[in-house]
Design brief:
Elements (H helix, E strand, L loop, with lengths): L44 H22 L15 H14 L9 E2 L8 E6 L2 E8 L4 E4 L14 E4 L8 E10 L13 E5 L26 E6 L14 E8 L1 H4 L13 E5 L15 E5 L5 E9 L10 E5 L4 H8 L2
Length: 332
């Protein structure tokens, strides 16, 4: 994810507002030649786990030697992974040197309680959103090569490891009109094998009404787990970034997406680039608050032309368009 820290005074301590992390998520595990714009992750974490212990030891030894970081900093606790350590390292390096355009921030524990990691063999593949104690919402393209529910598990919480909760998947329902490799109708619902006990750190997001309107140019937050560099491993901590909702007329301009944005899609980001979701965020939530502070699911991370390029904002599945379909499949 290439993104920026949201600056809401009641949510973010002032000491964190200058911290920047610039993340580039993994390439797709699908056929990148035929479908370069979708945003799931690669198989790279398998190799990352093999070298993780060596990297951790070398990194810890070097940083202890030069006194670069407080040994109590969470990125270097014994129960955290190398990925977490590197997120912290990049954050501190950036904050003590030249400011970078873009950047995302670590989410606080329990901050986005509806965020889900969809995994195969304990490896993060896509994001999803909790919409009830038994149902999740995600992107159809996440399941293009693995549609059988037994191949998937869902984990909950801010950290990939250890998760706050884990569930097996019972059912995957892909929209009937989704047709790979098209970007349109990119939506799926996922039923869990058993109910969850919703609590402060695991909770559903609000679903909008079909007629609900979200003003363009308003702030929204996209969340997900992404790589620290191109084709690299996912960080252990959930990342968050603030983007702007962009109207479809602007997004369909020739220099942007040249008419590719259908009524079932929503653009969010910045025309100047620099802040965006990216590969690995697929299926995850784009949310925005109302005046009461209630968070509504606006979009589902779907596709884009690479990541954070000028005139190429992120493209999301428009949730309001599919509200009746969601109700039909889930009863919600």
């Amino acid at each position: 994810m290439l993104g920026a820290l949201p600056l809401w005074e009641d949510r973010v301590p002032s000491c964190l507002k200058e911290a920047v992390v610039w993340l580039l998520l993994k390439k797709t595990s699908l056929d990148v030649d035929s479908l370069p714009s979708y945003r799931p992750v690669s198989n790279f974490p398998i190799l990352g786990k093999v070298i993780e212990w060596v990297v951790t030891q070398q990194l810890q030894r070097h940083l202890d030697c030069i006194g670069f970081l407080d040994p109590l900093q969470s990125g270097f606790c014994s129960d955290h992974s190398t990925e977490t350590a590197l997120v912290t390292l990049v954050n501190d390096l950036r904050s003590t040197s030249t400011r970078m355009i873009g950047g995302s921030s670590n989410a606080r524990v329990g901050e986005w309680p509806w965020q889900v990691s969809l995994q195969q063999n304990n490896i993060h593949r896509c994001g999803a959103t909790v919409i009830s104690n038994t149902w999740l919402l995600s992107a159809a393209h996440c399941f293009q090569k693995a549609r059988h529910p037994r191949k998937w598990t869902a984990t909950f919480g801010t950290h990939l490891n250890p998760p706050a909760m884990k569930r097996f998947v019972k059912t995957i329902i892909i929209h009937e009109k989704y047709n790979y490799p098209s970007h349109d109708y990119d939506i799926a619902v996922v039923q869990l094998s058993r109910r969850m006990e919703l609590a402060e750190r695991v909770h559903h997001v609000c679903l909008p009404d079909a007629t609900q309107f979200f003003p363009y140019n308003s702030d929204a937050v996209v969340t997900g787990w992404g790589a620290l560099w191109n084709n690299g491993p996912s960080p252990n901590i959930l990342q968050e970034a603030t983007v702007k909702l962009i109207d479809s007329h602007t997004c369909n301009r020739k220099e942007v997406y040249n008419g590719e944005i259908s009524p079932r899609m929503l653009c969010a980001g910045y025309l100047e680039g620099g802040i965006d979701a990216c590969q690995g965020d697929s299926g995850g939530p784009l949310v925005t608050p109302d005046l009461r502070g209630m968070w509504y699911l606006v979009g589902i991370v779907s596709w884009g032309d690479e990541c954070a390029k000028p005139n190429k904002p992120g493209v999301y599945t428009r949730v309001t368009y599919f509200r009746d379909w969601i109700a039909e499949k889930t009863g919600l």
